[in-house]
Amino acid sequence: MTAWGKAEGAAMKICFIVNPNSANGQTRARFAAIQPGLAAVFPEMKVRYTERPCHAIDLACEAAGQDFEAIVAVGGDGTLNEVVSGLDRCGRPDSVLLGMIPSGTGGDFRKTSGFPKSMEQAVAYLSDWRERRVDYGVLTFRNLDGSSGRRPFINIASIGLSGVTDDYVNHTTKAFGGKASFMIGAVRGILAYRNVDMTVRVDGVQIHEGRTALVTMANGRFFGGGMMMAPDAELDDGMLRVVILGDMGKLEFMSLSSAIYAGTHVKHPKCKLARGRVVEVEPASRALIDLDGEMPGMGPVRAEVIPGALRLMVPRL
Question: Distance between alpha carbon 91 and the CA centroid of its chain, in Å?
């Protein structure tokens, strides 16, 4: 179901949740530059700045309880993930419209969703938008301290090499931009990672067992700063795309990187594809996870799709 809308100034209650530290600390100044234009459209707009990791989860849950009609995440994929997590936590994922003004490192979800490419397009985007109902996923896993964890993801969750890469990326300067940061992190991750024995089940059926480089559970198509990991993923079909890269050596995986950016890696003989509503991955030893560009814990994991639960504000065109 798609609805069309135009902003109606003060008639629309909208809350902007801004991560000032995203984009290597440039987002606060970037948002300040466009704020007058946004205020002209939304005179009663509210702005909340995050002050610590996961703060946007609390802010989004609070905003949903204050009868805002729309919440706009300003930052990267991690900020958007936290906002979705807040809506999920308070049990109101479809109670508000959800928008995004991108200002982050990777910007992967906007490539699939249709969110604008830059902050400069934000005023036009929020002045004339359409509603799109989309799915999101929920991942259960182990936190690094061994306790049980649960976290939604709107784009892609994965386990294996990507988790190690995230750890390196998030400790690497992002001053050179998303793609370069992820490329540096990926190379370091590949050199450090050792393939792990994993068992993968989709909707209760075992589809893979053995040495594994990476298992992805995708709602969106892109991750890792532009890698088209799941080229046929759809945000609104009630399914997760499962992409498994098997027992690849370091040079073999590095030689596949250009194919992953193009989405042609799915033809590789060591790549397995599936789709389903519930995906379970059991690693035989420690394996870190990636969740919308962050590394919150490790396997085993269980991913389940929540169909049509989010109402995105995307550009009309």
Answer: 20
